[in-house]
Structure formats: structure tokens, C-alpha cells
Amino acid sequence: MTDSVNKPLNIPVSHGLRAWLRDPAPQSPFQAKMQLMWIQWRRFCANHSALFGLLVLLVIVFAALFAPWLVNHDIYVQNLAQRLQPPSSSHWLGTDELGRDMFSRLMYGARITLYIAGLTALIITPIGLLVGTTAGYLGGWVDTVLMRLVDIFLAFPSLILALAFVAALGPGIENAIIAISLSAWPPIARLARAETLAIRKMDYIAAVRLQGASAWHVIVHHIVPMCLPSVVVRVTLNMAAIILTAAGLGFLGLGAQAPSPEWGAMLASGREFMLTNGWIAAIPGLAILFTSLAFNLLGDGLRDVMDIRHE
Question: Could you point out which of 11, 58, 184, 272 has its C-alpha 20 to 30 Å from the C-alpha of 231?
Fold first, then answer.
């Protein structure tokens, strides 16, 4: 008997991993999946702008995770004797109007920005998928009701809608996340519905229905996995808009509250000194710019990688 434990992956040691990934006749579903991931990674690496976006995001994530070890100034302690100091060896990015170190606040501000963007993405993705796939698969009055609800949300600009929700809920990071999520899920639902309308006509969906599967089973186990790649790409591209909306709420005093080092709030406090001490506003503004740009570049790269029609 052959020992199945010794060859679960069917990797030919004599040829190496690269040959295993390039084998034109995969011996198992796992090998086929690994080959697909390898092809997608090579395609992604060929997109230099996407690699740049990924690198920038990795730097921002690294700064957010290791902020306590990267800074040597308290982000809340005020020192009016050193207010409005230009960049120097002791304060790499200078100090703000209250003498607080800009570099330290920028590092901790990355945590808040990624927290808002990440939690918003975790909220809008399942909501958009559920609404869109349900409307597209069931059709009829369910589709009409859900899509008219989506149209109502899409009738207002996302920032205006977020402002309305956060004004009703009150200022704060958590309320800002809820407000941004309520204004950001409709495009995800519309995309999921469009994907579902094409998927539900496929033969394998008809075969599953003939086997007696319920509508909920078909949606969760067969349609949602097919829609997920497109939705992930769309959410990644929407991260820039989420970050800009969060910064806009912070700038207007409806998001993170002082003395929080949120980038929008930092930009608001530094706008009075733009003509005399421009770095106070430029530093958080550039951080917002590069983070949004990085998400856009990464989203473009993921769209090319996950496009099944890519030649």
C-alpha cells in the first residue's frame, strides 16, 4: 500500500516547487488552486504601480502597529515653549500649535485611520453582499424593494449623507464609522446584484436547484463566493473614499474629537497656520493623500489580477 501521508500535495521533490507550480497537468485540486494563486501573484508583481501601493500600505500598517516603539514623545503632552517648531533632529516633522510632536501624532493617527477604514469595510462588505445577492437571485418584489432602497441612498452624495447621519448620531469615531458605513454599502449591493443576475443563469445553479437546495443555500454557498472577488476589489477601491470621508468628518469636528491625533482633525487645527507654518497642515494632508492613493493603486492591481476575462 502507498503511504498517503507522504504525498498529500503531490509535490515532485526532484523538480522543485517552481516546477510543481508550473505543471500543466495538476494532480489535485490543491495544486490547481496553488497554481492559480501563483499566476495571480506573478500578474500582480508585473503591475509596478500596484506594488508601490502595496508597499506604501505595508509601511502605514507597520507604523500603526509599532507606533509605541517608533515614537519618543507623548502625543498629548503640550509644551508651549516649543510650539510651531520646524522639523529638526529632536522633532522630525516639527511641532504643532501646542508644542506636540507631529511625527508621534502622525504615527498614532495612522492607527485611527486604519481602524476607521478597516471596520467600515468589515461592515459594508457583508451588508452589500447580502442585499445585492438576495435582490439579484430572488428578483420580483424583493428586488424592487431592495433596489429602490439602494437608489434612495445613492441619490445623495456619500459625504453629505454621512454628515446627516453623524449629525443625528453625534460626533465621535464610532458614530462616524456607522455614518460612513450607512453611506458606503449601496454601491457594493448594486455590484453584487449585477454579478448575481449573470451567475443565476449558469447551469450549475440550475443543477443545484434541481437537487432541492433552498434559495438561502444557493445564495450563501454558490453565489456569494462567486461575487466575493469583485466585491473585494470594489471595497479596496472605495477605501480611498472612506478615508477621505472620515478625514472630512474629522476636519469638520464631527469625527474624532480633540486631542485625538486623527489626520482630519490635525489638518483642521493646522489650517490657521498654513501661510506661516505650512508643515502643520501639509503633513496630515500628505498622509491622507498617499494612503488614499495607495488603496487606489492596490485596488487597480487587484482588479487586473481577479479579472477572469484577463488574457
Answer: 58
Q: What angle do CA 180, 63, 37 make, to 5 degrees?
A: 75
**What integer best gives the mean pLDDT of the chain?**
86
Amino acid at 242: I
Contacts 24+ apart (CB under 8 A), 305-310: 305/40, 305/43, 305/44, 305/47, 306/40, 306/229, 306/230, 306/232, 306/233, 310/43
H helices of 155-251, in order, are: 158-169, 173-199, 203-210, 215-218, 224-251
Asked if residue 256 lies in contact with residue 250, where contact means CB atoms within 8 angstroms, the answer is yes
CA distance 112 to 110: 5
Phi-psi label, residue 221: left if phi above 0, alpha if psi -120 to 50, beta otherwise: alpha
Other CB atoms within 10 A of residue 152 CB: 11
Residue the block writes with cell 492607527: 111
- Check residue 2 and give its pLDDT: 44
- pLDDT value at residue 77: 87
All residues at 6 or more sequence positions from 85 whose CB lies less than 8 Å from its CB, including other chains = 91, 94, 95, 99
Residue 290: the pLDDT is 94
pLDDT of residue 97: 87
DSSP state of 101: B
Identity of the residue numbered 42 = R
The pTM is what? 0.85
211 secondary structure, DSSP code:
T
| CB distance 94 to 152 below 8 Å | no
Buried b (16+ CB within 10 A) or exposed e, 13-52: eeeeeeebbebeebeeeebeebbeeeeeeebbeebeebee
Average pLDDT of 238-249? 91
Tell me the β-bridge partners of 101.
95
Counted residue by residue, the chain has a size of 311
In this structure, what DSSP letter does residue 88 have? Answer: -
Partners of 95 in beta bridges:
101
Cell of 73: 514623545
